[in-house]
Amino acid sequence: MLELHGVSKRFGETLAVNSVSFSCQRGELVGIIGRSGAGKSTLLRLLNRLSDPSEGRITWDGEDVSRLKGSALRKWRRRCAMIFQQFNLSPRLDVITNVLVGVVGERPLMSSLIKFFPAADRARAILELDALDMAGAALQRAVTLSGGQQQRVAIARAMLQEPDLILADEPVASLDPVNAEVVMEALQKICRERNVPVIVNLHSLDIARRYCTRVIAMAKGAVVFDGPPSALTPQV
Ligand code: ADP
Ligand code: ADP
């Protein structure tokens, strides 16, 4: 279980995240909504420790992960899968190589490096792609795929890390409505089947209502709503 205790992040005069506290269970699909500048991205970056909190504590199963350093910090980052708006695939590399990057955690030097990946990793990569209906595209270059397909490849790459926590920063913001649905359904399935918490920043309240088990609304860095989508009032 993930717990935040009074987590704040200050950038000079700006309080980007203001004393945020909540806990999140395995199997929850939490949508974070709020206007641009509300602190959503900063919050995700604090969770995977790309950014250090100015105040407060973040714990995972009781262990404080907000002060980790060195190899313990790198290990925590590997346990947090990150999914981005812009997919961040290497466009000219093929799909399976893009997914295998999930086991090394960095970009390979050449696509020919694929032969150095153990067969077991390649088999896992194909399984993850298959779970997202993308195994048929394994040998295609990423650049040839639609945005929705690229995002599914990015999710497969993230799953190869066997994450404890999935963090997605506006994963459907650059997709058309149909692809946005496909990607949200994929996250929903992963959340249910793998029993991991998924925290997803969304700018669409409609998508949050339809897919999330819980919605957290932020304004000026603070949590202003936290509950099931059914409890959201229309004006939130
Ligand atoms: P959101 O993701 O909800 O759009 P952000 O987390 O990106 O919001 O930003 C929250 C606030 O923190 C904004 O006022 C933004 O300008 C500020 N901020 C974010 N990152 C930085 C940074 N690296 N340096 C200074 N200010 C930042
Ligand atoms: P090709 O498939 O055209 O023979 P490569 O397999 O060497 O070329 O790489 C494919 C593409 O992946 C390159 O054009 C490059 O843009 C990108 N690429 C490869 N390695 C890296 C790297 N270490 N960092 C960034 N981009 C890379």
TrEMBL record:
<feature type="domain" description="ABC transporter">
    <location>
        <begin position="2"/>
        <end position="236"/>
    </location>
</feature>
<dbReference type="GO" id="GO:0005524">
    <property type="term" value="F:ATP binding"/>
</dbReference>
<dbReference type="InterPro" id="IPR003439">
    <property type="entry name" value="ABC_transporter-like_ATP-bd"/>
</dbReference>
<dbReference type="GO" id="GO:0016887">
    <property type="term" value="F:ATP hydrolysis activity"/>
</dbReference>
<dbReference type="InterPro" id="IPR012693">
    <property type="entry name" value="ABC_transpr_PhnC"/>
</dbReference>
<dbReference type="InterPro" id="IPR050086">
    <property type="entry name" value="MetN_ABC_transporter-like"/>
</dbReference>
<dbReference type="InterPro" id="IPR003593">
    <property type="entry name" value="AAA+_ATPase"/>
</dbReference>
<dbReference type="Pfam" id="PF00005">
    <property type="entry name" value="ABC_tran"/>
</dbReference>
<dbReference type="GO" id="GO:0016020">
    <property type="term" value="C:membrane"/>
</dbReference>
<keyword id="KW-1278">Translocase</keyword>
<keyword id="KW-0813">Transport</keyword>
<protein>
    <submittedName>
        <fullName>Phosphonate ABC transporter ATP-binding protein</fullName>
    </submittedName>
</protein>
<dbReference type="InterPro" id="IPR027417">
    <property type="entry name" value="P-loop_NTPase"/>
</dbReference>
<dbReference type="InterPro" id="IPR017871">
    <property type="entry name" value="ABC_transporter-like_CS"/>
</dbReference>
<keyword id="KW-0547">Nucleotide-binding</keyword>
<dbReference type="GO" id="GO:0015416">
    <property type="term" value="F:ABC-type phosphonate transporter activity"/>
</dbReference>
<keyword id="KW-0067">ATP-binding</keyword>
<keyword id="KW-0472">Membrane</keyword>
<keyword id="KW-1003">Cell membrane</keyword>
